[in-house]
Amino acid sequence: LDAQKARKFRETYLAYHVYEQAQVFIELDRDERTRLYRYLTPEEVGDMFNAIEEEPEKVVAFFDEMTPTYAAGVINEMYSDNVVDILAYANKEHLNNYLRLLPAKTAAEIRKLLHYEDKTAGSIMSTEFVAISQELNVEQAMQEIKVAAKDAETIYYVYVINDEQRLVGILTLRDMLRNENHIMVKDIMNRQVMSVKVEDDQEDVARTIRDYNFLAIPVTDFANHMIGIINVDDIIDVIDEESAEDYSGLAAVDVEQPDESPWRAAFKRMPWLITLLLLGMSTTSLISHYESLVSQASILAVFMSSITGTAGNAGTQSLATAVRRLAFDDDEKSLLRQLFGELITGVILGLVTGTVIMIIVGIWKHNFVLGFVIGFAMMCAIIVANLAGSFIPMFMDKIGVDPAVASGPFISTLSDLTSVLIYFNIARLFLNFFVGQ
Amino acid sequence: LDAQKARKFRETYLAYHVYEQAQVFIELDRDERTRLYRYLTPEEVGDMFNAIEEEPEKVVAFFDEMTPTYAAGVINEMYSDNVVDILAYANKEHLNNYLRLLPAKTAAEIRKLLHYEDKTAGSIMSTEFVAISQELNVEQAMQEIKVAAKDAETIYYVYVINDEQRLVGILTLRDMLRNENHIMVKDIMNRQVMSVKVEDDQEDVARTIRDYNFLAIPVTDFANHMIGIINVDDIIDVIDEESAEDYSGLAAVDVEQPDESPWRAAFKRMPWLITLLLLGMSTTSLISHYESLVSQASILAVFMSSITGTAGNAGTQSLATAVRRLAFDDDEKSLLRQLFGELITGVILGLVTGTVIMIIVGIWKHNFVLGFVIGFAMMCAIIVANLAGSFIPMFMDKIGVDPAVASGPFISTLSDLTSVLIYFNIARLFLNFFVGQ
């Protein structure tokens, strides 16, 4: 009876695409998962695990539910890049257990991959690629590819290596199909093969794959030995991750896991809110210094938020532009030239916006001196916020910090401080002229 | 002499990858481009044009520099999805000129593609795919693929159609290589082929390709006839575009072309800044209503920016989370449940943040009634901003507007208004208690 149930379950479950299997799997409870391990082979579970996109901390716990032999079977079937992401979160003892049960070669590969630094090409590459010798002809090469087809993550690109395992060329399956069997690989391969180094930043790899429209790119070590391959689907994950980071930085909230309980959401946003509040207290205490000025001319309080708000918006615009430029442009203009450009932009924005508010205030309050004070203060505040918005991410990039973490609200808070300083000092200068009117 | 120069130029130029050729090409001036057209065949220029990633308005001008016959040759060589993006910007007369010079079938295809709505699957698909009949065996199918390999954008997936051109299955080259020549295609093909409809949103297509790790997906019409294919490299462009849109919305600045002159940058940011300034004037005029209150208690002016700032930050956090959730989650919880979750998050954030500021103000100003007023106002302002930040994008999504255009600064400006209203009303209620102390 159980055998029949198992057969029926296997038939239904395995008919789904692995991504859909994975979607179902992560909704199961522990008992159901245990039963599933009994019904499916480690290979089938391994295929499915390649498609799980949960946090690795969660997935590693699944391994711990299986018998070590079963887990090793699953690990053996998975692509090395996926397995390494997950095993990085395994505890040492479990990890050694699994590795001991794996074929020596696979275990050694995983050990090596575990050592690559996070966010480098090495950390996202897999070792399941097809490499053939340049001394083969097309027919022999096709034979090798047929054998490799079982395990390789992609067989569309065939990498050609020489006797010393160095990468010397690339062929696509298309090239092979369009050539006669007796033609030598080395005569038709493309010798100008693009590759990335194992220590390259994953963002640079993403840029190359995107710009060149590659489906995969080979990874080499310092001596041009081919050691791995990065596929376009891993690059999509990198692009998603990096764009979520940029976006999170601008909003001061981690948006990578948007669907969660209100408690967890509050818990994640709280540190940012409180930090910004405390930073904002410096602005508050600065305003506090000018309290007597405000009590002399309460009209100043009316326009304060308008000035800090507009300068904050200008600063956010220039920040966002700078962060994107740093993320996507290869050939960077000199720091000074960029800052100079942003200065000019700020002056234009400040002049126009300042003039607009000057006219509005002048007409509304019948007080053109007040209008001038507000307009002039807004112009200065915008120029400063604009410069800060572009300088800070560029500076962070120069010292090796990801500029995306320079959050928009952080810039706004900073710009509040300078805006208030500018505003009240200009206002004090002209106080007698506009209060008297 | 000229012939020799041409040969030398061709040799050097064509040795580069098409992406690099394109990078060089866009830097040339008009004279240089004209010379290049003389040296290269339309086919070679067409290959290169596939790799150009400039604005289509710019590229279409290149066609106008060529003789119509040459331009038609270039167009004929390009992939249909790329060519259609560009020709959408051609003037009618030129377009008809080009189409007249193209093979009838290609011209008809381009005409059809030009009619699909922007941002749908139809607008990004190409028609260069490999489709074979299910009645072939593996050997015959391989023969067809070899022929198709010249023009198809990808040959890795082979789509299987029946006599009525309906999509019935899919095979990968890997499947073919692993099966004997005499096996029938219909016996080894995967019948559960995922496809998208021609009118589907490009974001949904991107999500499917990303989740399933596909290299391409077939596009069908209402009757399941296969009419095109969308490749992963086009999907990367979609993901880039959509993430730039989300990011732009949050910063109120278009970041898609970050590298430009200060004048253009100012020109692009100005409308947002001025709009937000004018919207902000409603807050200013509201504050203006409370001017007499401020002149009675100038201390209120001191904490105003702290309350509007913090509520604005909370609103931005909830906005960003909502926008990402709408963009990435398929199974949406009910609107009410999401809003309720955000309400709870807002209450938690408001309670904690309000308590923190209450303690700070109480100790700093030795006035716990004032502290309570500030803390209570901040709590209410945060709850309202949080709700608005999630409600507005969800509402926009429901009425079919892209929620990404709900900019962060827009939410901040809105939340300024409600925060000020809440703050001064609470303050007025307790005025006698904290001013007297």
Walk me through this protein's architecture.
- The structure is a homodimer of 437-residue chains.
- In chain A, 68% of the residues lie in helices and 6% in strands.
- In chain A, strand 4 (196-197), helix 14 and strand 5 form a beta-alpha-beta unit.
- Chain A has three domains: 2-115, MgtE N-terminal fold (Alpha Horseshoe); 131-239, CBS-domain (Roll); 262-436, SLC41 divalent cation transporters, integral membrane domain (Tetracycline Repressor, domain 2, Orthogonal Bundle).
- Chain A has helices spanning 2-15, 18-25, 30-39, 42-49, 56-65, 68-77, 80-87, 92-101, 104-113, 121-124, 138-148, 173-177, 185-188, 202-212, 232-251, 262-289, 291-296, 299-328, 335-364, 368-398, 408-436, and strands at residues 131-133, 157-161, 167-172, 196-197, 216-220, 226-231.
- With 437 residues, chain A is mainly α.
- The first copy, chain A, starts with a helix and ends with a helix.
- In chain A, the strands form two sheets. The first copy, chain A, has a three-stranded mixed sheet. A three-stranded mixed sheet of chain A has the order 4-5-6.
- In chain A, helix 6 (68-77) packs across helix 8, helix 16 runs parallel beside helix 21 and helix 18 packs antiparallel against helix 21.
- The mean pLDDT of chain A is 88.
- The interface between A and B is large, with 110 and 109 residues.
